[in-house]
Amino acid sequence: GQSLEQPSEVTAVEGAIVQINCTYQTSGFYGLSWYQQHDGGAPTFLSYNALDGLEETGRFSSFLSRSDSYGYLLLQELQMKDSASYFCAVRDQGNTPLVFGKGTRLSVIA
Amino acid sequence: DAGVIQSPRHEVTEMGQEVTLRCKPISGHNSLFWYRQTMMRGLELLIYFNNNVPIDDSGMPEDRFSAKMPNASFSTLKIQPSEPRDSAVYFCASRPSLGTSGSTSTGELFFGEGSRLTVL
């Protein structure tokens, strides 16, 4: 089976940088994804890493180390609207479903 | 495109009643997933379909739960009889099939807005 660990809550100040870590255990590995979910909303895709290294998309970056079974989501220049839950997710084969972590609730404060 | 469409958005029912949740995936997406979200257990996969065929229903909690996909544009999740512990948000998601070996696709899932179920 698969399991993912991420912190349950993180608080950060507007304008700052925050890093949300994710460690995983899977029988196979086909990539690490990140999703954002605002209260009352649906999860939406943020990023995907299949290979080691950093992927950057605007203020958000995601990193993967396959040898360490570890990844993180980096949010820069935090804005109040970034307050949400962030989920890491893995799939262990090409066409299998995503397995999600429990999510990290990010609170951005003024 | 309209995105994944779920109905109802909210359902309040009494214990023992039958509940049917509906989902219309994005046109052209031939993989469909039902997830359940609760505070305690997070996002759990219940069942998924490829090309309308159920592939893995090991996440369905009990025989009270059943899911069908009669065609490429419609799926249902039924709970009969419902119990208070079934209260949760049920999400349907879809994506294009990625194939069974080797894919550079991100595998992005497109979620519906969810159906919030409350069983009293």
Layout of secondary structure:
The complex is a heterodimer of chains A (110) and B (120).
Chain A: E1 3-5, E2 9-13, E3 18-25, E4 32-37, E5 44-49, E6 53-57, E7 60-65, E8 70-75, E9 84-90, E10 99-100, E11 104-109
Parallel strand pairs in A: 2-11
Antiparallel strand pairs in A: 1-3, 3-8, 4-5, 4-9, 6-7, 7-8, 9-10, 9-11
Chain B: E1 5-7, E2 10-13, E3 19-24, E4 31-38, E5 42-50, E6 53-56, E7 65-71, E8 74-79, E9 88-95, E10 110-111, E11 115-119
What does this 3D model show about the protein?
- The complex is a heterodimer of chains A (110) and B (120).
- Chain A is mainly β and 110 residues long.
- Helices cover 0% and strands 55% of the residues of chain A.
- Chain A has no helices and 11 strands.
- In chain A, the strands form 2 sheets. In chain A, strands 2, 4, 5, 9, 10 and 11 form a 6-stranded mixed sheet that branches.
- In chain A, strand 7 and strand 8 form a beta hairpin.
- With 120 residues, chain B is mainly β.
- Chain B has no helices and 11 strands.
- In chain B, strands 2, 4, 5, 6, 9, 10 and 11 form a 7-stranded mixed sheet that branches.
- In chain B, a hairpin with a 2-residue loop joins strand 7 and strand 8 (74-79).
- Chain B is globular and about 45 Å long.
- In chain B, 36% of the residues are buried.
- The model of chain B has no long low-confidence stretch (mean pLDDT 93).
- The A-B interface holds A 30-31, 33, 35, 41-45, 48, 50, 87, 91, 93-95, 97-103 and B 31, 33, 35, 42-43, 45, 48, 50, 56, 91, 97-104, 106-114.
Short summary of the structure?
The complex is a heterodimer of chains A (110) and B (120). Chain A has strands at residues 3-5, 9-13, 18-25, 32-37, 44-49, 53-57, 60-65, 70-75, 84-90, 99-100, 104-109.
Cα distance spanning the termini of chain B: 36 Å
Helix content of chain A: under 10%
Main pleated-sheet profile of chain B: 7 strands, mixed
Unreliable runs of chain B, pLDDT <50, ≥5 residues? none
List keywords for this structure.
A: 110 residues; mainly beta; six-stranded mixed sheet; 11 strands; 0% helix; 55% strand; globular; B: 120 residues; four-stranded antiparallel sheet
